[in-house]
Amino acid sequence: MTAASGVDAASTIAVVGTGVAGTTAALTLRNAGFTGRVVLIGDEPDEPYRRPPLSKDVLRGTMSPGRTRLRAPDTWSQHSIELRTDTRVSGVDAEARRIIFADGTGLDFDRILLATGGLPKVLPQARGVGGVYTLRTLADVSALHGVLAAGSRLLVIGAGLIGSEVAATARDMDCAVTVLEAQPAPLSRVLPREITRVYEELHRASGVDLHTGVDVRELIHEGDQLAATDAGGRVHSADAAVVAVGLDPRTELAEHAGIATGDGIIVDEHFATSAPGVYAAGDVANHPNHVLGGRQRVEHWLNAQEQGAAAARAMLGDRTPYSCVPWSWSDQHGVTMHVCGWPEAAEDLTVRGEPGARDFTAIARRHGRVVGAVGMNRPAELRALRKVVSAAPHAEQAVLADPATELASLASLEVAGTSS
Amino acid sequence: MKIYRCEVCGFEYDESQGWPDEGIAPGTKWEDIPEDWCCPDCGAAKADFVMVEVSPA
Ligand SMILES: Cc1cc2nc3c(=O)[nH]c(=O)nc-3n(C[C@H](O)[C@H](O)[C@H](O)COP(=O)(O)OP(=O)(O)OC[C@H]3O[C@@H](n4cnc5c(N)ncnc54)[C@H](O)[C@@H]3O)c2cc1C
Ligand SMILES: [Zn+2]
């Protein structure tokens, strides 16, 4: 902690959100030596837990919900972190530096971190329709597990990461699964076209009835049956549906406080919002992209964790700009994929290995620079590439394709500055 | 047989089951896994794992 930080042992730092960004921030404040008051507030009833297993082992029933607990229950008290679960923040007065809770009480703070994550986007056609589920919280997963365990015919609307994982898990549980995706391919927001093909094949080989380019016009629940009608008039029927069409960042506290928002809460490379003393991190934060330029909002576990840690250090006066590269993984039909950087921004793709055999690394270049990678069955290569992407060096495709190339060595080829 | 959990993402390595996907046979002790192995999910290094007690929960 530096003198410039403006916080000391008499200060209070409030953290809103008990997800991985908020909890990591609270713990990082302590690890970095902050001795003032830390209050960690979340509206979910559960103690902090991990979301990634919710669409995988927990939904399948092969991991108990208790196993998702993020930290041992006594962690918070041990670190003198005041954890308040089941507590809704209804307003933040950025000027007076005061939180207002739903019950009308308040809390004065010196710094606040908004790590409020997001909620599943609502499909207007599905609003209020029976038999329709979304998946974000532990509470959501138990209801959905019951549906799948009953062997229901499931309709999954949206083949992004969560929709695709739910479809795969439902197949594991022997449900008949139909997936309806508006884009021409599954996972098209995160992967280049060549790689989305691997997933089309994987889903189909695993018995998923996948329909792409489908515009769901109407969803009707009648006599325990759901019927989704697409723009072509085709009707897809099922017992239940999961809508997984993206995330709406929870920006309402920031908006009402007059803080700049766009797609998420706008922050700088130190996670500071437009209001002094107010920071944001995790799925809700819209931050500068240090490699491609511009801004981005990342919805991945590791990034929420890294951002929470970086924001906490920034609140204590650390001026190191954030420079982590997106990293995520997905488990579907027994295959794990790793993604780093921005493969969706690829102008060309260099493939090492065999996508068809689900053993490959595909390296994405933009303007000749390495900006992302996707891989299956090659975690070590992807891990090396994450460092490479951070430096975004220029590299020839022939070099990238050569199995003899030590990928990690590319990171030191040339360190490019932020450009486009 | 012990279970090790990745501090980063929560992935668990169960010695009794090994990790056959990457050629780590059931029963392989944590100490015997190569140092350059990383978490099958998040990619964290072996050093980022912590040991957890097996709990039936
Ligand atoms: C089913 C599922 C599977 C996933 N799988 C993967 C994966 O395999 N790999 C990967 O990299 N990522 C995965 N993710 C994404 C990853 O889990 C998220 O990026 C991460 O959890 C985001 O953390 P966060 O702390 O930013 O937000 P969140 O975890 O959403 O936490 C925000 C918290 O703030 C609370 N909150 C919001 N507003 C208020 C308020 N006004 N008052 C009080 N509390 C409030 C919310 O209730 C919530 O608990 C998955 C996500 C889901 C849902
Ligand atoms: Zn991990």
UniProtKB/TrEMBL annotation, chain A:
The ranges of region (Disordered) come to 50-75
The record's listing under SUPFAM superfamilies reads: FAD/NAD(P)-binding domain (SSF51905), FAD/NAD-linked reductases, dimerisation (C-terminal) domain (SSF55424)
UniProt cross-references to Pfam families, sorted A to Z:
Pyr_redox_2, Reductase_C
Location of the FAD/NAD(P)-binding domain: 12-308
Which Gene3D superfamilies would you find in this protein's record? 3.30.390.30, FAD/NAD(P)-binding domain
Per its Swiss-Prot or TrEMBL entry, what cofactor is needed?
A: FAD
Q: Identify the stretch annotated as signal peptide in this record.
A: none
- Give the GO molecular function terms: oxidoreductase activity, acting on NAD(P)H
Give any Gene Ontology cellular component: cytoplasm
Does the entry feature the keyword ATP-binding, yes or no?
Answer: no
- All copies of domain Reductase C-terminal, residue ranges: 327-410
Q: Which keywords, in A-to-Z order, does the entry hold?
A: FAD, Flavoprotein, Oxidoreductase
Protein name from the UniProt record: NADPH-dependent 2,4-dienoyl-CoA reductase, sulfur reductase
Organism, by scientific name, is Haloechinothrix alba
Organism phylogeny = Bacteria, Bacillati, Actinomycetota, Actinomycetes, Pseudonocardiales
Automatic annotation (TrEMBL), chain B:
Recorded GO MF terms: electron transfer activity; iron ion binding
Q: What does this protein do?
A: Involved in the hydrocarbon hydroxylating system, which transfers electrons from NADH to rubredoxin reductase and then through rubredoxin to alkane 1 monooxygenase.
Protein's GO biological process: alkane catabolic process
Q: Where is the Rubredoxin-like domain?
A: 1-52
Reading the lineage from the top rank, the first entry is Bacteria
Organism for this UniProt entry = Haloechinothrix alba
The record describes how the cofactor is bound as: Binds 1 Fe(3+) ion per subunit.
PANTHER family associated with the record: RUBREDOXIN, RUBREDOXIN-1-RELATED
Concerning its family, UniProt says: Belongs to the rubredoxin family.
Query: What name goes with this protein?
Result: Rubredoxin
Q: Which cofactor does it need?
A: Fe(3+)
Chain positions recorded as Fe cation binding sites: C6, C9, C39, C42
Q: Which InterPro entries match?
A: Rubredoxin (IPR024922), Rubredoxin-like_dom (IPR024934), Rubredoxin_dom (IPR024935), Rubredoxin_ET (IPR050526), Rubredoxin_Fe_BS (IPR018527)
Keywords assigned by UniProt, alphabetized: Electron transport, Iron, Metal-binding, Transport
Q: Sorted alphabetically, which SUPFAM superfamilies does this protein's record hold?
A: Rubredoxin-like (SSF57802)
